[in-house]
């Protein structure tokens, strides 16, 4: 079968487009972790004491660092940060907000002096290891996860008995978020680290609070709503703060009071002065 000469230019354009698309997909596959993780070095003047957790199965001396504020007693708070966050700088505000809690802020692998490279499997394993290290000293462990850290927190709460769970600017899965940002790319086939929080949420029974920005350029509201609706009825609630921007939530004057109210041993699980929203259907 021969191709008419007049069809050759169109065929060449189509072939060039296919090659360019394939090259783009290949580049995204090879560089995906550099596009997802932005490790921050530990600053010389970073606050807090450091706890070192050995990495099971890692090379000799491999460790994950945790910024800590030690406190005797039953209450502890574990914090998992965003993908470009130096969690040590959360310590001063959390110290002021939770004076009766021991604080543990995990530096992901490759972040803040921790060994290795970040990945979904590594972050999940290190979160479980931190909980198991802390549990003998503290019977009431609250967990706060922000952005990427919300997926780490969800995984932990699905596998360990946490007391309270707070998810800040959370999402249903990285796969779903990426699909909204890159609708023409087969992200489900390319992604190695999918962070499917919505799949883990039904296993969680602890009181859970989701906090979102009114407008978030990184995590579409539909992805937060999809996560919310994945929890069992009565487990999770959502508070939307009237701020614009993915990183604006923690700067809201209502943010820390909201955390304080929810993490108090209040049987209702609601923060004073707020009206959490019930689970809703994901937006289309």
Question: How would you describe the overall organization of this protein?
Answer:
The chain has helices at residues 8-36, 91-97, 120-134, 148-159, 174-181, 187-190, 197-200, 221-228, 255-263; strands at residues 49-54, 63-69, 75-80, 102-106, 140-146, 164-168, 208-215, 236-244. 34% of the residues lie in helices and 19% in strands. The chain contains 9 helices and 8 strands. The protein is an alpha/beta fold and 284 residues long. α3 packs across α4. Mean pLDDT is 86; it is low at 267-284. Strands 1-2-4-3-5-6-7-8 form an 8-stranded mixed β-sheet, sandwiched between helices. The protein has one domain (9-263): 3-Layer(aba) Sandwich (Rossmann fold).
What's the arrangement of secondary structure elements?
Elements: H1 8-36, E1 49-54, E2 63-69, E3 75-80, H2 91-97, E4 102-106, H3 120-134, E5 140-146, H4 148-159, E6 164-168, H5 174-181, H6 187-190, H7 197-200, E7 208-215, H8 221-228, E8 236-244, H9 255-263
Parallel strand pairs: 3-4, 3-5, 5-6, 6-7, 7-8
Antiparallel strand pairs: 1-2, 2-4
């Amino acid at each position: 079968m021969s191709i008419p000469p007049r069809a050759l230019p169109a065929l060449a354009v189509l072939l060039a487009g296919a090659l360019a698309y394939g090259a783009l997909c290949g580049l995204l596959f090879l560089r995906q972790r550099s596009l997802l993780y932005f490790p921050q070095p530990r600053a010389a003047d970073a606050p807090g004491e450091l706890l070192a957790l050995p990495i099971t199965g890692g090379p000799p001396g491999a460790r994950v660092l945790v910024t800590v504020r030690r406190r005797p007693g039953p209450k502890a708070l574990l914090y998992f940060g965003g993908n470009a966050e130096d969690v040590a700088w959360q310590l001063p505000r959390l110290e002021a907000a939770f004076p009766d809690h021991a604080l543990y802020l995990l530096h992901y692998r490759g972040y803040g002096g921790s060994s290795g490279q970040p990945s979904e499997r590594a972050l999940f394993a290190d979160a479980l290891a931190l909980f198991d290290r802390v549990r003998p000293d503290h019977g009431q462990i609250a967990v706060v996860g922000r952005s990427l850290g919300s997926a780490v927190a969800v995984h932990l709460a699905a596998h360990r008995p946490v007391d309270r769970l707070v998810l800040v600017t959370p999402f249903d899965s990285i796969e779903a978020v990426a699909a909204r940002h890159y609708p023409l790319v087969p992200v489900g086939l390319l992604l190695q680290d999918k962070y499917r929080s919505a799949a883990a949420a039904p296993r969680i029974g602890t009181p859970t609070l989701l906090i979102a920005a009114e407008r978030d350029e990184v995590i579409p509201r539909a992805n937060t709503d999809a996560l919310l609706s994945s929890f069992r009825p009565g487990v999770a609630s959502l508070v939307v703060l009237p701020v614009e921007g993915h990183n604006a939530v923690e700067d809201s004057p209502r943010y820390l009071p909201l955390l304080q109210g929810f993490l108090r041993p209040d049987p209702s699980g609601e923060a004073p002065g707020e009206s959490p929203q019930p689970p809703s259907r994901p937006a289309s």
